[in-house]
UniProtKB/TrEMBL annotation:
Xref: Pfam families: Acetyltransf_1 (PF00583)
UniProt-annotated stretches for the region Disordered: 142-164
EC number: 2.3.1.267
Record NCBIfam families: rimI
Keyword list, A-Z: Acyltransferase, Cytoplasm, Transferase
UniProt keyword annotation of Transmembrane helix present: no
The protein's name in its UniProt record: Ribosomal-protein-alanine N-acetyltransferase
Domain of life: Bacteria
Family: Belongs to the acetyltransferase family. RimI subfamily.
InterPro entries: AcTrfase_RimI/Ard1, Acyl_CoA_acyltransferase, GNAT_dom, YpeA/RimI_acetyltransf
SUPFAM superfamilies: Acyl-CoA N-acyltransferases (Nat)
């Protein structure tokens, strides 16, 4: 498989996002089409990953809050079609989200299920560390979530920053 093409999420793909949510998060509260529309309408940064035929195979969203030098970013969602997992799609999406956060020198936060080892490994590889636990965060399953943080790009503890 060739590398996915990552671009601004197309409004025409929001229905597919909601369909993937149903597949990926059936035991929790999957986002609806209306949730995705609201996120786009709020002006949050959403990306789609597309295969060679321009089919949506993944998506991710980021919000920014605050004013320099105190800007925080939050990964609102990130998901990859099960048939495409393990092929670098999530990494490609995450790199683009983090590039956006880095443009604003933002510390980036996210929540991830404590039992989602592949996602946790991906986030750690990109400079995130676990900083908290949110009990029963995902509903209705009651699954716990780790809160993870990646320092701002200009921070001495950011990936690639500081002394070697």
């Amino acid at each position: 498989m060739s590398a996915p093409f990552v671009a601004k999420l197309r409004r025409s793909d929001l229905k597919r996002c909601a369909e993937l949510e149903q597949v990926l998060f059936p035991g929790d509260d999957p986002w609806s089409l209306e949730s995705f529309v609201a996120e786009i309408d709020r002006g949050h940064y959403y990306l789609g990953a597309y295969d060679a035929d321009e089919n949506l195979i993944g998506y991710a969203g980021l919000s920014l809050a605050g004013k320099p030098p105190e800007v925080d970013a939050e990964v609102h969602t990130m998901a990859v079609d099960p048939a495409q997992q393990g092929r670098g799609v999530g990494a490609a999406l995450l790199r683009r989200l983090l590039a956006r956060a880095d443009e604003h020198r933002a510390t980036t936060f996210l929540e991830v299920r404590t039992d989602n080892d592949p996602a946790i490994a991906l986030y750690r590889k990109h400079g995130f560390e676990i900083v908290g636990l949110r009990k029963r965060y995902y509903q209705p399953s009651g699954a716990d979530a780790h809160t993870m943080r990646r320092p701002a790009a200009d921070s001495p503890t950011a990936e690639g920053g500081g002394p070697s």
